[in-house]
Write a structure and sequence with these properties.
By secondary structure, the chain is of the alpha+beta class. The chain has one domain. It is built from two helices and eight strands. 32% of the residues are buried.
Amino acid sequence: MSIDTSRWDVLDWRRQVADLYRAVREADDPAQAHAQWVAGRDHLLTAHPASPVPAAQRAAFAGARVAAYDPAFRFVVPVDLDVEPARRDVATGTDGVVPLERVGRVDLPGIGSLDLWWTALYGGGVFVPLRDATSGRTSYGGGRYLLDTVKGADLGGDAGALVLDLNFAYQPSCAYDDAWACPLPGPGNTVAARVPVGEQHAG
């Protein structure tokens, strides 16, 4: 099954996502920023022509289920850059084969460690997926995304102090429509802890 999504719709989607995350980064109150993010993401999912929610289902789609904000799941952590190089080539639904190169690792106290991947395409960007003990139970079985800066999902910071707020964990497009093929978390992005915040299962 092919995905018939206009390139101009995708361009507009990415602009709106980038604007939404810019507002998140500029907000003084993370909980208020989270509420704005939930509302903005719901608007995109329910009304935007590039939404991963199938067009025939959008009228009945009530929006994503997102857990209440919990500040205990917000981290500002340094990146360990001294990691063994690794590469993954991931086939996707719309972007062809996406090469991912491991560029660092972060330790989230009480949660575990996660690999940081660089999307090695033109322009590049940081990609951080997550699979946790809620995956396949209350959240999508394939995992969720924390950062995907190529597509505008950027919570801020740098290698010295990277913002990873798990309240903003969201489902990849394939959670809404299996016509999509998405990069999913590997062993280095899988933790045993429960992450009960963020976007919950589409079903």
